[in-house]
Amino acid sequence: MENFNYYNPVQVLFGKGKIAEIGKFIPKGFKVMLTYGGGSIKQNGVHDQVMQALRGYEVVEFGGIEPNPRYETLMVAVGQVQRENIGFLLAVGGGSVIDGTKFIAAASCFRGKNPWDIVAKGARVDAALSLGTVLTLPATGSEMNCNSVVTREETREKLSFASRHVFPRFSVLDPETTYSLPARQLANGIIDAFVHVMEQYYTFRRGDEIQDRFSEGILKTLIDIAPRLMGDEEPDYQTRATFMWAATVALNGVIGCGVAQDWSSHHIGHELTALHGLDHGVTLAIVLPGVLHATANSRREKLLQYAERVWGIDPARPDAAEQAIEKTENFFRSLGVETRLPAYHVGMETIERVERRLRERGVFALGGIDDVNIDNLREILTSRL
Ligand code: NZQ
Ligand code: ZN
User: Fold this and answer.
1) What is the tens place of the pLDDT at every residue in 139-198?
2) Would you kindly state where each structural domain of the chain is located, as residue ranges?
3) Interatomic CA distance for residues 245 and 215, integer angstroms
4) Kindly report the CA angle at 18 between 14 and 23, in degrees rounded to 5?
5) Residue 327, CB-side half-sphere exposure with 13 Å CA sphere
6) Which residue among 185, 196, 244, 278 has the greatest number of ligand 1 atoms within 8 angstroms of its CB, and so is best to mutate?
7) What phi and psi, each to the nearest 5 degrees, are found at residue 46?
8) Can you give the pLDDT at residue 1?
9) What pLDDT, on the 0 to 100 scale, is given for residue 2?
């Protein structure tokens, strides 16, 4: 492992009934803005629990944050935060609500002229409003990291920023809040967590044994629980709890410490979402198998390690690498997700457009390793037709 500094200030409140404790972590007398999405929290009882826990606080609500949260919507919230002297943001929902709230937190304190510069130009975030989260969709890890991805409708750009100022102060992870998730979002969440691990694991074989074994453990756990998650008529608490924690540790910084990383599937996937509105998890299920194919020679040793340790394939088999890629794609399909572009009516025109856009932005390496780059992007995406 290389040298690393690990910092994570998020207080995790994990388990049934933990929403009731959030009052301990929000300073008394603060005016709280409760942010949420399209209304699922009002149907599944989470909103009621949160309001109960916030008794004694002045609360204003900001709903309507979309999946792939939109800059245009978030800026409306920023205006309200500034006008109404909000002291604390509480995000209740999935990754989109949490990411959107991180952007609101940063943009509300931004001193530059244009808050879009935070994601478009990497403008410095010197401060942000404090925020907490109540997670309802295990997937992104946003509840325990300092990343945020924002989409601008006007220009169809989906871009991200990271700042230590937007780490949540606390995050409630109550597995029961996931009981109302539809199959589509469970599948998205499993794929997202799986690919987060892959982007921090599938690089080079360098003897990073602790990190590798952590990662392989998370991947195997996701594979193991997926049929139960997708198939159960009645949600099972323990399975939901395992899923929720797996998704959090997949992107809370621990498995990425000191190891090479390659975020190319995410980078390419964001372009597909920006242009076609595809769910984030869906884009990863499409792109990752293409990246695995494109790097099967340059990362052969690690691919064979993955084949053996995650899928139980004998690495001496001549087709071990192929088998591992096929099993990965079949795993995504077993969740009911199509893994080829035509299933989403996406063709060559989009592939060319994505390449053009990234070239215009001066991008070369698409992740952290340059065997996936702008020159083989077309090959990767055409292999998904
Ligand atoms: O909006 P509501 O009504 O709440 O419904 C949501 C939404 O329609 C619904 N949902 C959430 N919890 C529910 C529920 N429905 C029923 N019961 C519940 N308990 O699910 C739908 C999707 O929600 P969304 O938040 O968009 O999904 P997800 O958590 O997958 O977040 C995706 C966003 O996170 C970004 C993605 O790019 C995308 O914009 N990511 C953020 C990352 C980070 N901050 O570190 C990393 C990821 O790689 C990812 O890029
Ligand atoms: Zn992701």
Assistant:
1) 999 999 999 999 999 999 999 999 999 999 999 999 999 999 999 999 999 999 999 999
2) 11-177, 183-382
3) 13
4) 120
5) 19
6) 185
7) -70, -40
8) 84
9) 84
pLDDT above 90 for 32: yes
Looking at ligand 1, which residue's alpha carbon is closest to its atom 48?
A: 140
**Residue of 230, 200, 198, 208 whose CA lies nearest to 327:** 198
Sign of CA dihedral 298, 271, 131, 194: negative
Token pair for residue 278?
């595809």
Mean pLDDT in residue range 220-236: 96
Rounded to a whole number of angstroms, the CA Rg of the chain reads 20
At 303 the pLDDT is: 98
Residue-level pLDDT at 233? 86
**Farthest-apart Cα atoms in the chain, separation:** 66
Residue 145 near ligand 1, beta carbon < 6 Å? yes
Ligand 2 centroid – CA 284 distance (Å): 8
pLDDT in tens, 239-278: 999 999 999 999 999 999 999 999 999 999 999 999 999 9
Taking the complete model, does pTM exceed 0.70, yes or no? yes
User: Which CATH number is associated with domain 11-177?
Assistant: 3.40.50.1970
Distance 348 CA to ligand 1 centre (A): 28
Rounded to the nearest 5°, which phi and psi values hold at 247?
Answer: -65, -35
Closest ligand 1 atom to residue 189 Cα is 30
Q: Distance between CA 48 and CA 31 in Å, rounded? A: 18
Is the CB of residue 168 below 6 angstroms from any atom belonging to ligand 1?
no
How close are the terminal C-alpha atoms of the chain, in Å?
Answer: 37
User: In this structure, which residue's CA is closest to atom 41 in ligand 1?
Assistant: 140
Strands 157-162 and 147-152: antiparallel
CATH homologous superfamily of 183-382 equals Dehydroquinate synthase-like - alpha domain (1.20.1090.10)
Q: What's the whole-number average pLDDT of the chain? A: 97
Structure tokens at 301: 């040793």
